[in-house]
Here is the input.
Amino acid sequence: MGARTRVSPTDGRSGGRGARRRGPASRRSKRPSAFGFLAADLPASLVVFLVALPLCVGVAVASGVPAELGLITGIVGGLVTGLLPGSSLQVSGPAAGLTVLVAEAVRAYGLPALGLIVVGTGLLQLLLGVLRLGGWFRAISLSVVEGMLAGIGLVIVAGQLYAMADTRAPSSGLAKLGGLPGLAASLLSSPSARSAFAVGAGVIVVIMAWQFLPKAVRLLPGALVAVGLAVAAKAVLGLPIATVQVNGLLDVVSLPDFAGVGTLPLVSLAGTVLAFTLIASAESLFSAAAVDRLHTGPRTDFDKELIAQGAGNTLSGLLGALPLTAVIVRSAANVQAGARTKASRVLHGVWLLLFALLLPGVLARIPVAALAGVLVHAGFKLLPLKQVKPLWSKHRGEAFVLAATALSILGIGMFEGVLVGLGLSVIKTAWDTSNVRVETVASSPEELTVKITGSATFLRLPKLLDSLEALPDNRPIRLDMTGLRHRDHACTMALLSWAERRRSHGVTLVQLTPSM
Here is the structure.
C-alpha cells in the first residue's frame, strides 16, 4: 500500500530518464497476472451462472415464451454485452422487470413480432449511446424508478400466484387482483392445484430461509437449491403438476419477419419499442450506479454501457429472444463472489451456452410452480417496502409520485404508468420551484407598496390573485416586482389584467416595477 500512496517528485510523468525506465518495470511487477484474474473470476462466473439459470428460465416462462429463449438472452448478455466496455462487473440477461411488458407485447402482437420489438429497442439504445445521452437517464426521478419497479413487482406477484397453482392468469393487473378470491376457491377444490401451489410456496420458503444458513452452505444460490428440491419432490412424490415444456435450442431461434412489419399497427408498435427502451435503459443504468457502489474498481461509462446494452438487445432480437437488461441480483452476486474483471460475466454466458446445448432435458423436469415461486420472491424484492415509511415522513410528494406510478402500472399498463409517473414528477418539481410571496408594506400614509418575490408560475397563480384581490380599493398601490426571479406568460397576463381593472375603477394608481 505504501508504494502506491507515496509518490516521489521524480516518479512517473514528472520524473527524469531513470524514472521513466523504472516506471514500466514497476507497473509490470504490480499488474495482476491473467491467472490471478482467472482464479477470482472463474469461481465468480460459476456463482453467477447458478443464480442466473433459474431466473433465465423463469422469466421466459412468465413472459409466455419458450424457456430456451430465456437461456439465449442470458447467453447473449454474457458473451456480447459482457465483452463490451461500459460497466466492468454488472451482469446482463432477461430481467423480471420486463416480464410484464414482454407478456403484454406477445399477447398483442404475437411471438414472431417480439424479435422486431427487441431489435428496435437495441438500435434505439445504440443511437442514444452514440449521441451520449446515457447520463440523462440518471435525471429520472428516483421515485418514478422505484414506483416503476414497485408496479412491476405487484403485477409479477399477482400473476405468478396463478402460475403457482398451474392456472392461467388474467391479462390485466386489476383483473389479476380481482381474480385472487376465485384462485383461493380453486385451491380448496382442486388437489392438483393445491399440490402445485404447495411446491411454489415451498420454493419461496427455502429462498427466504437460505440467507440465515451458514455461509459455507450458502455457496449455492438459494433459488437454485429450491428449484432442485422442487424437481426432487415432484419425482419422488409423483405430483400431478405441470413442468416446463422443452422445444430445443435451435428450434426456438427465429429471425424477425421484417417483411411483415406493414401488417402490424405501427404507432402502437413504436410506443412499445419506446417503452422497452425507456424501461430497459433506466433499469440497466440504475443497476450500474448501484453496482458501482459495491466495488472500488473502474466506474461505469454510462454511454458505453448503453451501447453495450443496445448491441446485446439487437442480437437478442435477431435471434427472436427476450430483451435484456443489467440485473442487480446477478450483478451483486458477481461482486460478492469476488469477480475482478468482465471475464466472470463472459464465462457465465459460456456456462449457460454449455448447459443449453448439453443438458436441455433438465428443463423438462422443472415444475412451472417452482419457477413461479422464484418470481414471486423476485417480485416482492422489487417492492420498496423499507423506503416507503421514511419517504412518507420526509418527502410526501415523492411518496405520492411513487405510489401513483405503481398503481397506474397495475391499473392501466406499463408504458402508461411510467408516463403518469414522469408527468407527476415534472409537476411536483414545478410546484416546488414556483414559490411566490406577496408582502404588503405601508410606504406612506396614502400609498401601499406590494412586493412580489420568488417565482410566479401558473401553479401559484390562484394564490397570487387571491392576495392581490384582497388589497384595499381606497388606497394607491405601487407594485414592486424587482424580486421576482421568474414570471411565466399566464402570470404576466393575469397581473396586467388585474392592474387594468384597478386603473379603470379610478380609485388607485398602480405602478409596475419593472415594466411588463
Observations:
- The CA atoms of residues 37 and 414 lie 41 Å apart.
- The longest strand covers residues 448-456.
